[in-house]
Write a structure and sequence with these properties.
The complex is a heterodimer of chains A (about 120) and B (about 400). Chain A is built from three helices and no strands. Chain A is mainly alpha-helical. Chain B is built from 23 helices and no strands. The chains are: A mainly alpha (about 120), B mainly alpha (about 400).
Chain lengths: ~120, ~400
């Protein structure tokens, strides 16, 4: 049995806890800003201006909008259904063994080849 | 006649101690959990078999005393892998990869190659939940100190709360290698028990209406963002916290290989062949450290108890911060995704999804929970780097 020492340096313990947990937060908050910046830069360089230019066109042709949203709804419904089936385990698990069962037949002269009908013709 | 007596005396049955007998039974139990109950079998099975091999008397596959001498400054074997190799058994040679911190980093490379950071890039606030879920690490660090463990041992025990096997092994091999066996077993056992440990805590800390909150769909993430992300994260984390560079660097290298689509062969190797080989070596060598002398003591029981505290506090930290964020933000977030901040990819995210669907079957939280989940991987690697720099 190991005897544990009971001298604790509480100063160091609180320091490591406070600074350590604080550092995790600070570092990840820095990463949040960088990711947000990355998103802004990427959107400004690629997607957003084009989308803004397209917006009046969509307004001019409102008939096209319901079609797109309907197909989106269908997609969402299909994804939702697939997830529902997956998480509820609806698909039964099949045994992957493919076997032919060996059938044991006892000997009987009734089905013996030696006494079959063909012998009578010889 | 003497030869026959010598033969019988050389048999393992004649040399087995009580401790080894108990460890063999424990290894059989872990093998049962891995094979029959399917508790993290990919790692638990090699760990349990490593435990079986190391506790076979007279087999000489692992020598704990060599590794004690390796750390003893007065010993001629101090930090000499050459000296170890002269007397090493098979498992000693495999263990060198753990000692050098090689296997956890290679596993992280594979994890990175299999992870989609898209949900995190789409919702960067998830990183806060990943940070809050590291609360378990630091609270357990305090508890372990109070129970009389040294600061280095306490840090290694606390990292179990990160719910990240490779990170736990990486940090423990550097700070408290003598505790590697119990800590690795605790980390992987509790990771397998995430669906049992987390739901009661999540339900206790949230109301019915909070659990039913539906979240806005995430924005699509461009390919360029996914390629820039691993490069930027590696540079920033390594510049701020160099001790976290091996883990975060390997994680992001794997992810870059997957996202850039120009080295598909390498990405495929990282995800499959390399990962599988390293898992075998890591599992066997970690299991080998669980010798009767190092495992059967009070410390192991305390580590197993504190491991569950670490998991619970981490889960609670993530959920509570999500609730706090709801007080200040316009767009409500479902607090259940906070629990996924404890790493354990992707099981913790699945638990969020399942608990959420119990309240509202039309609610799909999986992709939202993947954000904090992968943020937890980065968070636990950062926490390991901080503990290593402060306690190492």
């Amino acid at each position: 049995m190991t005897v544990l020492p009971l001298v604790v340096d509480w100063g160091q313990t609180w320091l490591v806890t406070g600074v350590g947990f604080g550092m995790v937060f600070v570092l990840l908050v820095v990463l949040i800003f960088i990711l947000k910046l990355l998103g802004v830069v990427m959107n400004s360089s690629t997607g957003k201006p084009a989308k803004k230019a397209e917006a009046p066109k969509a307004a001019a042709a409102p008939a096209a909008a319901p079609k797109a949203s309907a197909s989106e709804d269908d997609d969402l419904a299909a994804v939702a259904m697939a997830l529902h089936l997956y998480f509820n385990g609806v698909h039964d698990e099949e045994p992957t063994e493919i076997t032919l069962r060996n059938i044991e037949r006892r000997y009987s002269p009734w089905n013996d080849k030696a006494y079959g009908m063909n012998n009578l013709h010889r | 006649m003497d030869d026959i007596i010598r033969f019988f005396e050389g048999m393992g049955f004649m040399q087995i101690t009580w401790g080894q007998g108990i460890m063999l039974i424990l290894s059989f139990f872990l093998l049962y959990l891995a094979i029959v109950k399917k508790y993290e079998p990919l790692l638990l099975l090699p760990i349990a078999f490593g435990m079986l091999l190391t506790n076979l008397p007279a087999a000489g596959m692992y020598h704990a005393e060599l590794w004690t001498a390796f750390l003893d400054e007065s010993s001629p074997m101090y930090h000499s892998y050459g000296a170890i190799l002269k007397e090493a058994g098979l498992l000693d040679i495999m263990y060198m990869g753990v000692k050098m911190g090689l296997y956890p980093c290679l596993i992280f490379m594979g994890v990175g190659a299999m992870t989609d950071f898209g949900p995190l890039i789409a919702n960067p606030k998830s990183l806060l939940l990943g940070a809050a879920a590291q609360l378990g690490i630091f609270l357990t660090f305090i508890c372990a100190n109070a129970l009389g463990f040294t600061p280095a041992e306490a840090g290694s025990i606390g990292i179990i709360g990160g719910a990240d096997g490779p990170t736990s092994i990486f940090l423990t091999s550097k700070l408290a290698p003598h505790l590697l066996g119990p800590i690795a077993i605790a980390a992987y056992s509790y990771m397998a028990l995430v669906p049992v440990i987390q739901p009661p805590i999540m339900k206790a800390l949230t109301t019915k209406s909070e659990r039913a909150i539906k979240m806005k769909q995430l924005r699509p993430v461009s390919k360029t963002e996914k390629i820039v992300f691993p490069i930027a994260i590696t540079a920033i984390v390594a510049l701020i916290l160099p001790d976290a560079a091996p883990l975060v660097g390997c994680l992001m290298l794997g992810n870059l290989a997957k996202e850039c689509c120009v080295i598909d062969r390498l990405s495929d190797t990282m995800q499959n062949s390399l990962m599988n080989i390293v898992v075998i070596f890591l599992g066997l060598s970690v299991g080998a450290t669980a010798t009767a002398e190092s495992f059967l003591n009070v410390k192991t029981i305390l580590i197993l108890c504190m491991g569950i505290v670490a998991f619970g506090c981490g889960t609670a930290g993530g959920v509570l911060l999500a609730k706090l964020m709801n007080l200040f933000s316009k767009e409500k977030i479902n607090p259940l995704i906070g629990s996924a901040g404890v790493s354990a990819v992707p099981m913790a995210a699945r638990v969020s999804q399942q608990v959420g669907q119990e309240e509202n079957p039309s609610n799909f939280l999986l992709m939202h929970a993947m954000g904090p989940n992968v943020a937890g991987v980065i968070g636990s690697a950062v926490a390991a780097g901080i503990l290593l720099s402060m306690l190492g």
